[in-house]
Design brief:
The protein has two domains: 228 residues, 3-Layer(aba) Sandwich (Rossmann fold); 93 residues, Tyrosyl-Transfer RNA Synthetase, CATH 1.10.240.10. The protein is built from 17 helices and five strands. The strands form two sheets. Strands 1-2-3 form a three-stranded parallel sheet. Strands 4-5 form a two-stranded parallel sheet. The structure holds tryptophan. Tryptophan binds next to strand 1 and helix 8. Tryptophan (TRP) binds next to strand 1 and helix 8.
Length: 350
């Protein structure tokens, strides 16, 4: 069987380090390992519109931003197809047929959608498109025969929904669609990076993000203001690791050589944690350490981005070429679906 990788982001803002560690980094690794037949990265503008219908300008502008973030992180359009969701009309058509295979109560049970509805204060006025976006996401995934979807933890319910739809479709109309699988980072803090406030998931709407394009001073000031342990007031007080955002980030971002480079008095993260718990290690020190690590990570990304920003036409060209290619593939799947369903009337008759 072919190995096909697909993943996507909504273009509602610049990408942040939560996206990077939860998904982009593993996409770049997968891309460079080359162990796949096809790889797709989609900019989910149509999905973004499900809760931004009155805000098309924002979505439109962020298509370029997200594409710049991808390319500056090392996504290579020669190796993987980067495209815009709305430029592949077959996805919408597929969604319409999938809608018949899902109940309203099933959609309302989706924990990620439930949380989003709460966060957005939709209460009883939920746009139908928003509630049904997991169905459209199933089309995104199945249209390309995707086998693997690298995503953060919050997307697990979407992949489960997609698997259910594939199962139902195949049992109702015959084996047609490929069963996808989620690939979620093993390290918990990577799968779901908390915001700098330490409370919620990192999310643009909550203002608790460090963006891939942030300037060095901005990164530093965000890190120095991060949430730690509110009871760790004096250096000598024992500190708490659980729920301490700085340690969550260190868990996610520390590399083998980070200590040697920036904090040689400690051998590893366990040693640092033990000292913090015992007391005698100040927040400023761990924050400066984290700052060094994040600055090292983001410097080359920011510099590459500045280069690419000079030529937006080139970036759009990549996206349109990718969209044309994605369109051909999605059309093939849609045709197979219609044949399986028995609604491909023209080819039946002529
Ligand atoms: N829902 C995803 C997010 O909010 C974006 C997305 C749309 C996606 N279609 C997808 C992710 C298909 C994986 C596969 O981040």
């Amino acid at each position: 069987m072919e190995k096909v990788i697909l993943t996507a982001d909504r273009p509602t803002g610049n990408l942040h380090i939560g996206h990077y560690i939860g998904s982009i980094q593993s996409r770049v690794d997968l891309q460079n390992q080359g162990d796949f037949d096809r790889m797709y990265i989609m900019i989910a503008d149509a999905q973004a519109l499900t809760d931004n219908a009155g805000n098309v300008k924002k979505v439109r502008e962020n298509i370029l931003n997200v594409a710049l973030d991808y390319l500056s992180c090392g996504i290579d359009p020669e190796k993987c197809c980067v495209f815009i969701q709305s430029q592949v009309p077959a996805l919408t058509e597929m969604t319409f047929y999938f809608m018949n295979l899902v109940t309203l109560s099933r959609l309302k049970r989706n924990p990620t959608v439930k949380e989003e509805i709460k966060l957005r204060g939709f209460e009883e006025s939920i746009p139908v498109g928003f509630l049904t976006y997991p169905i459209s996401q199933t089309a995104d995934i199945t249209a390309f025969g995707t086998t693997l979807v690298p995503v953060g933890e919050d997307q697990k319910p979407m992949i489960e929904q997609a698997r259910e739809i594939v199962r139902t479709f195949n049992s109702m109309y015959g084996e047609t669609l490929v069963m996808p699988e989620a690939m979620i980072p093993k390290i918990k803090s990577q799968a779901r990076l908390v915001g700098t406030d330490g409370k919620n998931k990192m999310s643009k709407s909550l203002g608790n993000c460090i963006f891939l394009s942030d300037e060095p001073e901005v990164i530093k000031s965000k890190i120095m203001n991060m949430y730690t342990d509110p009871n760790h007031i004096h250096i000598n007080d024992p500190g708490q690791i659980e729920g301490n955002a700085v340690f969550e980030y260190l868990d996610a971002f520390v590399k083998k050589d980070s200590f040697e480079k920036y904090l040689p008095e400690y051998k590893n993260l366990d040693e640092l944690k033990t000292h913090y718990k015992k007391g005698g290690l100040g927040d400023v020190k761990i924050k400066l350490f984290l700052n060094n690590i994040i600055q090292e990570l983001l410097k080359p990304i920011r510099e590459k981005r500045k280069e690419l920003e000079k030529n937006p036409e080139q970036v759009y060209k990549i996206l349109f070429k990718g969209s044309d290619q994605a369109n051909l593939e999605a059309e093939k799947t849609l045709k197979k679906m219609k044949q399986a369903m028995g609604i491909d009337y023209r080819s039946d008759i002529f």
